[in-house]
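Quick one:
INPUT:
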């Protein structure tokens, strides 16, 4: 059993924010906020796993009222250094069960975070919780990577995803249980042959797009759009990720 509080601790929260770089780069964050603001259609939004407010803060600045759900105390403390509870209310709890406010026009879950839920059961519960927070016809947006299992060499269970100065990302994959563990290895690139390195590991359960769509159907959603990125590029068989927009189906009469 993974203790998510220990996984997303003070150290992880401190390292999470990289202003102007990585997932905080304007070319990444700008299209994300622009698309979410359009999909909110003038209503309010709820971010599941709001973290340190990477998306929520600029989305609020764009005129969308935002609430959040966040499990990690450390991530929430980091968020509160930037905005107070009057600006962005947040309920501390599990995104599969926690309740935050009334009927929103948009619920969103970005940057592969649904994969932090390590069972299919909990991932389906996340969809159902999103549905509980939406007004009729509201949207649930999920950003997720596509497993690149074709990169696995025969007989191997791991891939090197990033190799750059001072950092390696190695993913090991359990094909039976759809589990992937990312090994983040950081070291001093100026010291050849040093044994000093810092390793952190994050577990995930990967989801195929078709499986994600079935989870959505179980919670009463219909797929409205799927793009390869926030720039709304076409999603193809070669896409490394996707932004999927689900619409809450109207109740049957």
């Amino acid at each position: 059993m993974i203790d998510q509080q220990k996984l997303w601790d003070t150290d992880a929260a401190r390292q999470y924010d990289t202003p102007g770089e990585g997932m905080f780069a304007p070319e990444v964050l700008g299209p994300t906020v622009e698309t979410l603001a359009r999909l909110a259609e003038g209503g309010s939004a709820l971010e599941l796993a709001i973290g340190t407010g990477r998306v929520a803060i600029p989305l609020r600045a764009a005129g969308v009222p935002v609430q959040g759900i966040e499990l990690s105390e450390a991530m929430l403390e980091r968020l509160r250094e930037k905005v107070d509870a009057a600006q962005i209310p947040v309920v501390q709890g599990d995104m599969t069960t926690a309740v935050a406010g009334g009927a929103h026009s948009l619920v969103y879950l970005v940057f592969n975070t649904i994969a932090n839920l390590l069972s299919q059961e909990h991932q389906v519960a996340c969809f159902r919780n999103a549905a509980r927070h939406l007004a009729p016809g509201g949207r649930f947006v999920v950003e997720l990577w596509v497993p690149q299992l074709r990169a696995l060499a025969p007989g191997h269970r791991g891939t090197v995803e990033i190799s750059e100065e001072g950092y390696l990302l190695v993913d090991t994959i359990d094909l039976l249980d759809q589990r992937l563990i990312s090994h983040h290895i950081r070291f001093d690139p100026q010291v050849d042959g040093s044994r000093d390195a810092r390793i952190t590991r994050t577990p995930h359960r990967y989801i195929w797009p078709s499986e994600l769509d079935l989870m959505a159907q179980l919670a009463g959603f219909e797929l409205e759009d799927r793009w390869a990125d926030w720039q709304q590029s076409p999603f193809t068989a070669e896409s490394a990720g996707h932004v999927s927009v689900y619409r809450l189906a109207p109740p049957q009469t």
